[in-house]
Amino acid sequence: MNIKKLGIGLAACLLFFGPGVRAWETERPCSVTFENGTLPELSEANVVIDLYRIGNTVPDPVYDTYSFEVDPAYSSLGLSDMTDLDNDKYTQAASNALNIVLEQEIEPVASVGMDESHELTNGLYLGVAHGSDLETYTKQNLMGETYTFAQSPSHEYNFSPILFSLPTKEKVDGMISSGNGSWKYDTAITLKVEELPRKGSLEIVKTLERYDDNGPATFVFSVEAYEDETMETLVYSNVESIVMTGSGQQSVVLENCIPVGSYVVVREEYSGASYEIVGSGTQTAVIRPIGDPVASVSFTNDSNNTDRHGSSVNNRYTYDERQAMNEPQQDFGGRIMKKKQWIGLAALTALVLTLSVPNALAYFTTYASASGRVEISLEAETEIVENLPGSNMKEVQVQLDPDSQPVYVRVRAFGGSAFPIDVQPGANWHQAGEYWEYGVPLYPEEGRNITQTIVFSIDYEHNDDAQDFNIIVVSESIPVRFDENGDPLPADWDRTIEIERGEG
């Protein structure tokens, strides 16, 4: 059997000849075989090639060639006259043919596996390679062209649809003509395929040994993935958060977003408003093939006995299949819950004697217990108020609850290393290390209970792969302490206190 190996280029698949003397055998059966090139794992992707008959061959009465009689279903392709069909038009015609197949739900005349020879009559065919185990196996590129794919545990393979005709001839000195030997009725086509790493998952597990009742505890992690352990080529960059409302264990899964086989470095960038890391703050993992157990890293935290309260917002920026950005999602999972501190009658008397401001106790909610003991509930509730005027901008304010005592606040923003953040602070904001602190206290009265705006701008112009990403903003607050004249003391973010903890 004479096997002719063809690429996918137009000249090797669709043949038109000048005058000749060797007539082709119109009734002779043909065959086609689709072969793998140099991708060993393609054999694990369950690839089948669906074959659709686009048209019949029509022998030319004078020349040693043929033309096509196209099936009516494909008449819109304009393939009857292909004298001006260049490679670009061929690619578009194949894509359009696939669209017709999908829209009209046309059944293939045959389905053949890799390296399997299948007998066909002469004619014009469309070959569509895809994964036989996939219910959905089509996508569109940015040019609107439809392509198909198959998946192995570690890679995804993208295929362009193929138009090919049978029989064909070999090239001689780069040319195909009627004088180039005999016709070839048995053809082998080496699939032209793009191999990409599949996206695997990563689990981040957080254990919180003691919970402070300071409201939801937000923990922020940076996730940087590289091609290998040399860490020379970055392939994924993001941040993720876990928000907890009690001691115990909680996890988050970054699902199907990190290339399989990549080396991942996970760092705990933020350990909560009043917590600290126990053990190492950096963990590494290798993303495993699909079907294997998910790669996992774990971190442990405990209280640091500070009186800091916290809240957070996680903005999730995603792209659609055409790589257009969707509207950012706002996850306010870190909204602060009320924190109450109780003090007895003796402490209350001392507080009243210390404070010379007549309405100082207006900041406190009081009630008497059945035993006659006076208890003071000190609340410190803040939340982030956010506006998104554009896809790359976050306008942030921090607001104090009307039932809360005065507080100082500060904020901090987190993004992956591939998504730098620029800050434009409003009035009263100043930078202090990695935080932006608000220089004046917030009070529960209207007009004094919210900060000026601070703007965070995100640079994602170099996100060529349209990777989904998160931007996280956390805020912290601490109660204001007053001097003997009722004036606020400077913020002390490292002040420790004795904390009475409940269960969980």
Quick tags:
504 residues, mainly beta, six-stranded antiparallel sheet, five-stranded antiparallel sheet, elongated, disordered N terminus
Sequence-ordered SSE layout with sheet pairings:
Elements: E1 3-6, H1 10-13, E2 30-35, E3 47-59, E4 66-70, H2 87-104, E5 110-113, E6 118-120, E7 123-131, E8 138-140, E9 146-151, E10 155-159, E11 162-166, E12 186-190, E13 193-197, E14 199-208, E15 217-226, E16 234-244, E17 248-259, E18 263-270, E19 275-278, E20 282-286, E21 295-303, E22 309-317, E23 329-331, H3 345-354, E24 365-368, E25 374-377, E26 382-390, E27 393-400, E28 407-415, E29 421-425, E30 429-432, E31 435-438, E32 454-458, E33 469-479
Would you kindly provide a written description of the structure presented here, covering whatever features stand out?
This protein is mainly beta. The protein is built from three helices and 33 strands. The chain has helices spanning 10-13, 87-104, 345-354; strands at residues 3-6, 30-35, 47-59, 66-70, 110-113, 118-120, 123-131, 138-140, 146-151, 155-159, 162-166, 186-190, 193-197, 199-208, 217-226, 234-244, 248-259, 263-270, 275-278, 282-286, 295-303, 309-317, 329-331, 365-368, 374-377, 382-390, 393-400, 407-415, 421-425, 429-432, 435-438, 454-458, 469-479. The strands form eight sheets. Strands 23-22-33-28-31-30 form a six-stranded antiparallel sheet, with no helix packed on it. Strands 3, 4, 5, 7 and 11 form a five-stranded antiparallel sheet that branches. Strands 1-12-2-6 form a four-stranded mixed sheet, with no helix packed on it. A hairpin with a 6-residue loop joins β3 and β4. The protein starts with a strand and ends in a 25-residue tail after the last strand.
